């Protein structure tokens, strides 16, 4: 009996010990689970992130944005800068690589750059000026393309319509108040009877603007002499030929002429002929005056469209072409002095340099 009593006592002791160990292991497992699931004191919930005020945001992905610029001049440079600033101001900075390429007005360069963006699988392309947009649109129907410094997307055959683009191209137009620019010419050069209109015949936007300018000038009783160039090599000869026969020149937002304004200034000074330009950058580079758009603002406006696309809020096919809303006067004071033109007092704030 004593032996069985000892065995029973030993078994009861072992049973209690095993129960105690099992309970301890259960508590340990429970504590570990609670610790892994508990948020830290400094954690921010998604709801709190979305409610943070005045913080620009992106979806956190990394992007490559190709920028194809037709040629280097002040207006197109300003449009590019405005585009990049708009993206950075809206959270697309550290997560975006900008592949900026300039074709220097060369068709073969445009083709090479366009194919580069396709091969590198760019997430979005900014095309600055009509030839650049036509080039890149010709090699991809998939990559979203935003254009700027383009006058009419329909005329350039980039979209089905300005209201409903229909494919992968949309953007902003640099259509100027051309009739108002011709009226400004008449106000600043009231004795003008004959004006010259010069532009590049291979730029669709320039052809369109020249036609509108000719109609506006003839409606005011002006005689028009029209002449064209095909490259920057023609600018001096063509401008000299026309300037010798007219009282003033009108030049639209033409890329070849915009990059050649110092030459235009020199030629026109010889004949005492003022030049009304399509935009303020051309005035700064040697033109006389304009009522035009801000290309920086236009580029910024295009950048905001890019933000919508990258955020998944819109697609190019359904985004109507946008137009500039504000226009500004610019007068080159030094050119006015060279030509002996007195600027009306109401335009004093528009004078860019010198005293007129």
CATH-assigned fold name of the largest domain: Rossmann fold
**From the alpha-carbon coordinates, what is the Rg to the nearest angstrom?**
33 Å
Briefly, what CATH class of the largest domain? Alpha Beta
Number of domains: 2
The beta-strand count equals 12
Largest sheet: 6 strands, parallel
Describe the structure.
- The longest helix has 36 residues, at 2-37.
- Strand 3, helix 5 and strand 4 form a beta-alpha-beta unit.
- Helix content is 44%, strand content 17%.
- By secondary structure, it is an alpha/beta fold.
- The N and C termini lie far apart (129 Å).
- It folds into two domains: 63-174 and 296-323, Response regulator (Rossmann fold), CATH 3.40.50.2300; 178-292 and 328-350, Response regulator (Rossmann fold), CATH 3.40.50.2300.
- The model is unreliable at 1-11 and 16-57 (pLDDT under 50).
Topology (SSEs and partners):
Layout: H1 2-37, H2 46-50, E1 63-69, H3 74-89, E2 96-102, H4 107-119, E3 124-128, H5 130-137, E4 145-150, E5 169-173, H6 178-188, E6 194-200, H7 204-219, E7 223-229, H8 235-243, E8 248-251, H9 255-258, H10 261-271, E9 275-277, H11 280-284, E10 289-292, H12 295-310, E11 322-323, E12 328-331, H13 333-339
Parallel strand pairs: 1-2, 1-3, 3-4, 4-5, 5-11, 6-7, 6-8, 8-9
Antiparallel strand pairs: 10-12
